[in-house]
Design goal:
The complex is a heterodimer of chains A (520) and B (136). Chain A is mainly alpha-helical. Chain A has three domains: 178 residues, no CATH class; 185 residues, no CATH class; 90 residues, Zinc/RING finger domain, C3HC4 (zinc finger) (Herpes Virus-1, 2-Layer Sandwich), CATH 3.30.40.10. Helices cover 47% and strands 9% of the residues of chain A. Chain B is an alpha+beta fold and 136 residues long. Chain B has one domain: Ubiquitin Conjugating Enzyme (Roll), CATH 3.10.110. The longest helix of chain B is centred in the C-terminal third of the chain and has 15 residues. Chain B is globular. The chains are: A mainly alpha (520), B alpha+beta (136). Chains A and B meet through helix 13 of A and loops of B. Chain B: Belongs to the ubiquitin-conjugating enzyme family.
Chain lengths: 520, 136
């Protein structure tokens, strides 16, 4: 139920080194409490603030709800009503980002110098103008709450002596009060009194964002180091596997150097393992229906199924899984690498959730809005708000995905996959390999059949070149490669080809090859 | 099919693995949308050197498919390539539903209808789809 509990539980399933780098959700939560306290001390408890800010966000200044301002203090408000349209005040929450230092602050504008009055007047509800002494009322309507809110803020501001005597100033004076490093949250860092613009820095909010920002920054760095480590591991692993999954000596080489090449190789087993691995599609689906990254639960389950299949190779093949000890070590490392990807996936998910939830909680508890690029405003001064996008770095792209790709690029090609060398017609190993003049490769058997049927077009590109193909079209390099890397498959295909050709010949002579000998 | 295409199913008969029961979903945006069309597919002995035989079992009002469900599609005839597979063949049939070609007709009356008054012909196609290919 509570996210902080769920979060802790997820983290507990991860290795300590990951756990230690996770976002400190609880600590951020505590900081939110401090922000709430700070805002309360400003008289801006969430209901007040949300009411004030709810009036915000309108696109043009003309539509901005105003707080009517009067030249005298609390009395005689009617006297100035006529001037209300030319005066307004508004409050904006913004994040100022200055060289990795985040300074959240509230900016209050007030045009025309005056003392504030509680009779808030919103343009969209001009009726409030007629309402005398809204403040005293205890209505529960939004309208009165908003005005209460305005009132509270103004009272508070007045208490802070920010607007004191301001009716004398015509938007020209600039006050400098308090110093930058002051720890008292209610201290005023700087007051710009240009058109009576007032900036209230929120120090505990700053602490909150700073912690979050630093956490995300260091996460980014940490992820990069994990990526680098993983790549190194993979490269080592790929050369280890390459050592144990050697191809058989080619026919030509067999006579000369066969004694130099160790007879033992775990090529077959590695091929089975990688084939299971590709079929398992543990982290990503490649099917058309649900292409893309899988859920954590799905990955976990598929990884287990894969591990089960690898364990069963021994019984499936009826022989020892590996002949070489290094293979066992490498397999262990391979499984660990995959488990690591799963951990990273969980880790990134947990951190992204923590970030999202803490920002949501922040918005909810303080009523300070979540700032994002969409919170645009016509007011040039608050363009600073758009800085937030840059301020809170986006969670890095799925690291698990990058790591999965690294396995696909570095590790799997160590053992050539038969699909990459199969004839597109019979879908078996393309042995013997014939390369047509258009560079497309098929097995000799299928092309002979095509020639006999009078089919002249390349099955891939329809170039008319099947008939002219002959012995000179054999791809000898490929043939040798296939004999080395697919010794069993090429021997078997060769046998099948010969059998099929013989049967065909018999049939052409009018003899059913399946019948027993007609002579004896 | 290990990785079936969206909107297409094909399952072999238990007693004859060369014979497949096929369903194709009418493509969105075509008069055949929301229809589920049944087809049969047979792989001849010579496959993949020779094309599979494919036929609609569900009635369909389409200029390139006749009353008997026979399909006029070049890759099923002279443009067959041994590199084509069941999957690619069925995708082509599905695509034919999106792009009727009345200039190369099999059902001449339907083709004439399509050429003379396409909107009305599509209306009939929709009616037939609803009537014969209404799913379930």
């Amino acid at each position: 139920m509570h996210f902080s509990k769920t979060y802790t539980q997820i983290l507990l399933t991860l290795p300590p080194e990951l756990r230690d780098n996770a976002i400190q959700y609880r600590q951020l939560k505590k900081l939110i409490n401090k922000v709430v306290l700070e805002l309360n001390s400003l008289g801006l408890d969430p209901s007040v603030l949300s009411a004030l800010l709810a009036a915000e966000g309108s696109v043009s200044i003309a539509e901005t709800p105003r707080i009517s301002i009067h030249s005298d203090s609390t009395e005689g408000k009617n006297a100035e009503d006529g001037q209300a349209p030319s005066s307004y005040s508004k409050i904006v929450y913004e994040l100022h980002n200055d060289q990795d230092r985040i300074e959240p602050r509230l900016r209050v504008w007030k045009q025309r110098s005056a003392t504030f009055d509680s009779s808030a007047e919103a343009v969209e509800s001009p009726s409030s103008e007629e309402e005398p002494e809204v403040v005293g009322q205890t209505q529960n309507s939004d309208q009165s709450r908003r005005e209460d809110a305005h009132h509270d803020l103004l009272q508070q501001l007045r208490r802070m002596k920010l607007f004191q005597d301001s009716d004398a100033v015509q938007g020209a004076a600039i006050w400098e009060e308090a110093d930058h490093t002051s720890s008292n949250p209610t201290d005023v860092e700087e007051i710009e009194f240009e058109d009576q613009e007032l900036v209230i820095p929120l120090l505990s909010d700053s602490a909150f964002y700073q912690l979050l920002y630093d956490a995300i920054q260091s996460l980014e760095t940490y992820m990069n180091s994990i990526h680098a480590d993983f790549t190194t591991t993979l490269h080592r692993l790929s050369s280890d596997i390459a050592q144990t999954a050697r191809p058989s000596p080619s026919e030509q080489a067999a006579g000369v150097v066969s004694h130099l090449i160790p007879a033992k190789s775990d090529l077959d087993t590695w091929r089975i393992i990688f084939s299971h691995y590709i079929d398992a599609e543990i982290f990503e689906s490649v099917s058309e229906r649900n292409r893309g990254e899988r859920s954590i639960e799905d990955c976990e389950q598929r990884l287990q199924i894969f591990a089960g299949k690898v364990a069963a190779i021994h019984t499936d093949t009826g022989r020892k899984t590996f002949r070489l000890k290094q293979s066992r070590v490498a397999l262990d490392a391979f499984m660990k690498a995959n488990l690591m990807i799963l951990y990273i996936k969980k880790f990134q998910f947990a951190n992204a959730e923590a970030t999202r939830k803490i920002l949501k909680k922040h918005a909810k508890r303080t009523a300070l809005p979540l700032l994002d690029s969409s919170s645009s405003s016509s007011y040039p001064a608050i363009d600073a708000a758009s800085l937030t996008v840059a301020t809170i770095p986006k969670p890095s792209t799925s690291m698990s995905r990058i790591l999965v790709q690294a396995i696909g690029e570095t590790l799997l090609p160590v053992v050539p996959h038969i699909d990459d060398y199969s004839c597109l017609i019979c879908t078996n190993l393309a042995f013997k390999p014939i390369r047509l003049s258009c560079r497309h490769l098929f097995c000799v058997r299928c092309l002979v059949k095509m020639q006999k049927r009078g089919q002249d077009e390349c099955p891939m590109c329809r170039m008319r070149n099947v008939h002219i193909a002959n012995r000179s079209n054999v791809d000898w390099t490929m043939l040798q490669f296939m004999q080395q890397w697919f010794p069993k498959e090429s021997r078997q295909k060769q046998k099948e080809n010969e059998k099929e050709a013989a049967d065909e010949e018999l049939r052409e002579m009018g003899i059913d090859p399946n019948q027993s000998c007609v002579v004896c | 099919m290990s990785d079936p295409a969206p909107g297409i199913t094909a399952s072999p008969h238990d007693d004859n693995l060369r014979y497949f029961d096929v369903t194709i979903q009418g493509p969105d945006g075509s008069p055949f949308a929301n229809g589920i069309f049944k087809l049969e597919l047979f792989l001849p002995e010579e496959y993949p050197m020779a094309p599979p035989k494919v036929r609609f079992l569900t009635k369909i009002y389409h200029p390139n498919i006749d009353k008997l469900g026979r399909i006029c599609l070049d890759i099923l005839k002279d443009k067959w390539s041994p590199a084509l597979q069941i999957r690619t063949v069925l995708l082509s049939v599905q695509a034919l539903l999106s792009a009727p070609n009345p200039d190369d007709p099999l059902a001449t009356d339907v083709a004439k209808h399509y050429k003379e008054n396409e909107l009305d012909a599509q209306r009939v196609s929709r009616e037939w789809t609803e009537k014969w290919a209404g799913g379930e």
